[in-house]
Design goal:
With 66 residues, the chain is mainly α. Helices cover 53% and strands 0% of the residues. It is built from 2 helices and no strands.
Length: 66
């Protein structure tokens, strides 16, 4: 292979990689207001005091120095 062929091949690979990084899905997701379609929150099944304790523990875990 000559230097010209190697350069041309490298440029094609860089161009293809760059274009692949710019690709975006064209799928449209329609969300209806006020309609949650995710998994149910396990905290809502707990009693108020248990939920408060769980949230306090999560908060404390996030507040510790790293």
């Amino acid at each position: 292979m000559t230097i010209k062929n190697v350069t041309l091949t490298a440029a094609a690979v860089v161009l293809a990689t760059g274009l692949a990084g710019c690709w975006d899905s064209t799928e449209v997701v329609v969300h209806n207001p006020g309609e949650y379609k995710g998994e149910p929150d396990p905290l809502l099944a707990q009693s108020s005091s248990a939920r408060s304790e769980t949230l306090t523990q999560r908060f404390q875990l996030g507040q510790v120095d790293r």
